[in-house]
Design brief:
The protein is built from five helices and no strands. With 127 residues, it is mostly helical. The chain has one domain.
Length: 127
């Protein structure tokens, strides 16, 4: 009896799901713990740092999805009116917008691409 290894596509989807859940769990914990504190200004920056760290490990898709999920969770749990995706304050909308813009664009900029890393390893292996 031989075990079949999952396909590369399935492993990629699983990696993306794990990374996105990691971003969501950190954003949810931060939102629930610090929603009444004056850290509302810093919460999107902390979430962006988490998104970049997770995107560096799990890839661009995880960075994009993690940014969107973090923004939705912060909008729902932190910014007034609470338990609504509507954000009343223009400052809070700007913070969420910067989280989305920064998380998505920096995920594309700082995530290593698999095809480029294979091309770089190719000439080294021949030497």
């Amino acid at each position: 009896m031989r075990l079949q290894m999952p396909s590369g596509r399935l492993l990629s989807v699983l990696d993306t799901a794990i990374g996105t859940l990691l971003c969501a769990s950190v954003a949810l914990i931060l939102a629930l713990v610090f929603n009444q504190a004056r850290l509302q200004l810093a919460l999107p920056l902390i979430c962006m740092a988490v998104v970049l760290a997770v995107a560096a490990r799990f890839g661009v898709a995880t960075g994009v999805l993690g940014s969107v999920v973090c923004a939705l969770l912060l909008a729902y749990f932190v910014y007034a009116p609470v338990h609504s995706l509507h954000i009343a304050s223009s400052d809070a909308r700007a913070r969420i917008s910067w989280l989305l813009l920064g998380g998505i664009s920096l995920s594309f900029l700082f995530t290593p691409r698999h095809d480029e890393s294979k091309q770089r390893e190719g000439p080294r292996a021949k030497d």
